[in-house]
Amino acid sequence: MEDLELYFILGQDAFQAITTWKDWEKLLLLCNFAVMTRPGYQQDGLANILPPDFSSRFTLDQEIDGYRGPTGHFIYFRHTTFLDISSSHIREMAKTGQSIRYLTPDSVRNYILKNSIYTK
Hints:
This protein is of the alpha/beta class and 120 residues long. It folds into two domains: 7-78, no CATH class; 85-120, no CATH class. The chain has five helices and five strands, in the order βααβαβββαα. It has helices at residues 12-16, 24-30, 52-55, 87-95, 106-114, and strands spanning 7-11, 32-36, 59-61, 66-68, 74-78. The chain has a five-stranded mixed β-sheet. A hairpin with a 5-residue loop joins strand 4 (66-68) and strand 5. The mean pLDDT is 87.
């Protein structure tokens, strides 16, 4: 079996709060992170998000535009188009009966509607 790389993909808003997560240090050393930009957030480097003693263990690799950690895993910041979508916003829209078409795959939208998820 070939080796697979694990990526944790999250929005920059969630990454900004990562130090509030349980065992966040272990998680950042366990796999690669792809942090997707969000409207209203600037990417100022790890030193402005993580404590200095931890962020200093990562080095910026210009070639891949990411930070290499001591375990060889990376933290990438990736710029996306600014379509301001979040899971909490989608839940609120579904709860109030607004259309979530084009915000989720059809199969997810159909499941939410069929099972009255968020409207109970």
